[in-house]
Specification:
34% strand; Alpha-Beta Plaits; single chain; 8 strands; four-stranded antiparallel β-sheet; CRISPR-associated protein Cas6 C-terminal domain-containing protein; CRISPR-assoc_Cas6_C
Amino acid sequence: MTLLFVTPLRLIDQDHLVQQARFRPLIRRLLERYQALEQHYGNAEIAFSKEERDTIARLADGVRCVSDNTCWQELRSYSNRQKRTTLTSGLMGEATFEGDLEPFLELLALDELIHVGKNVVKGNGWYQIQS
């Protein structure tokens, strides 16, 4: 499966900035984003349990990036609230992943619409499933 990162994707994994295409941090953040939106705007009773999130994240370890055609884009935007520029940098480009992707298809398709990572409110974290 190839994902095209249309706008900068900025992820943090284990307190470190992710600067290469990696599947596990993407899936972990997708789960967190879905969970937060479901709890605030949806039906919290159908949200993933901690055990389900951990299982899905563990399965993501079996998926590897076989082609990373992403690059890091250094970008900034101005925050009226903070009265200063803020980083909106992130990965852009294409990455192809291989492995058992079946458990992630629904989540990836859903999050293609809601975006993922830092600065989603500014339009970042938009990706498209290519194949």
